[in-house]
Amino acid sequence: MAQFDMPLEELRTYRSASIEPPDFDRFWADTLAQARSHDLDARFEPVATAIRTVEIFDVEFSGFGGHRIKGWFSVPAGSTGPLPLVVEFVGYGGGRGLPHQNLTWASAGYAHFLMDTRGQGGSWSTGDTPDPVGSASATPGFLTRGIADRDTFYYRRVITDGVRAVEAARSHPLADAARTVLTGVSQGGGLSIAVGGLVPDLVAVAPDVPFLCDLPRAVRITDAAPYREVAVYLANHRPERERVFGTLAYFDNVHFAARGSAPALFSTALQDLTCPPSTVFAAFNGYGHQDRTIEVYDFNSHEGGGAHHEALRLEWLPKYV
C-alpha cells in the first residue's frame, strides 16, 4: 500500500472538523461519578509462573456499572519500594493474554498494569472479561455496539473501565501514583488518549498509531476495519446518520486530546489504512500539552514502528519518571 492520505507537510498543520458537544465535560463527569458510586474493590492475587525476574498478579476491579474487569499487574521480582507505573491498554479484538506475554515494562523496572478489554479477546490475544451489557442491532465487531445513543455506546463502558484501571493500579503499594504513564497501540493508543483526557495528574502519555481519532473523517476515508463497521452500519440504517455521528462526538479523541495535560509521544504510519495518519495528526495537532512529539513511519502500515518504536518509548520515558 502506497501513501494515500495528505502529504506530510499538510498533516503537520491539519485540524479536525469534528465538533465537540457542548456538554462533553458534563457527560464524562456524570459517567465517572456513576462508576465511582461502586466500590473499586481492587484485588491482586499472585500468579505462579516459571518467570523468575518478574512478579505477576491477577487483578480484578470494578469498572463501568460495577462490572468486574480483569488485568495483569507486574513488577520486577523483589521490588520493595514504589515504582513508576505504566498502565497499558490492548489493541482492538485482543485481551490481556497470558501472564507471561507482556513483561517488557516490568523488565525495565516499572510497575506495569495491563487492562483486559471487556468483551474482546477472541481474535489475536485471549481475554477474560465479559461485557454483560447487550446491544441493539450492530455490525459485527465492537464499534457500532449501542451506537445509536451515547449512554449505551460500547466505548463509554471501555473508556470508563480505563479510568478505573488507573485508579486500581495506583492502589497497589508498589505503584507510585505520582508517576503514572499511559500507553497502548491502536485501540490501546486511543484509550490512552481518552483516559489521559480524563485523568489530570499523569506524567506522560504514549499513544502508538491510535484508534478513535477524528471519527467523522476516519469513517469516510478508509475502507478498512474497524472504521468500516460504521459505514456498513449506516448503509443499512440510513435514517440514523445524524444520531450516530452525534454519539461518536462524545468519544472522539480529538476532544480528549485537547484536554491532555501530560507530555506525549505519538506515532503514526503514512501507509496505515486502519488508523489513517490524518486522523492521528488531528489528535496530535490539537493535543493540550506543549511537550508533544510524533514519530512518523513513512513506509509502514498499521504495524507502525513495531519493536523499533517500543525501544524509542523505553528511551523516551525515563526523563519524565
Description:
- The chain is of the alpha/beta class.
- It is 31% helix and 19% strand.
- The protein has eleven helices and nine strands.
- It has helices spanning 8-11, 24-36, 104-107, 154-170, 187-198, 215-221, 228-236, 241-248, 253-257, 277-285, 306-316; strands spanning 43-46, 54-62, 68-76, 83-89, 111-115, 175-185, 204-208, 264-269, 292-297.
- It has a nine-stranded mixed sheet with strand order 1-2-3-5-4-6-7-8-9, with helices on both faces.
- The longest helix is centred in the middle third of the chain and has 17 residues, at 154-170.
- The radius of gyration is 18 Å and the shape is globular.
- The termini are far apart.
List its traits.
single chain, alpha/beta, 321 residues
Summarize the SSE layout with pairings.
Elements: H1 8-11, H2 24-36, E1 43-46, E2 54-62, E3 68-76, E4 83-89, H3 104-107, E5 111-115, H4 154-170, E6 175-185, H5 187-198, E7 204-208, H6 215-221, H7 228-236, H8 241-248, H9 253-257, E8 264-269, H10 277-285, E9 292-297, H11 306-316
Helix pairs in contact: 2-4, 4-5
Shape: globular
**Total number of strands:** 9
**Main β sheet profile:** 9 strands, mixed
Strand order of the largest sheet: 1-2-3-5-4-6-7-8-9
- Alpha carbon gap, first and last residue: 38 Å
Q: How big a fraction of the residues is strand?
A: 15-25%
Q: Spans of 5+ residues with little confidence (pLDDT < 50)?
A: none
| Number of helical stretches of at least 4 residues | 11
Radius of gyration: 18 Å
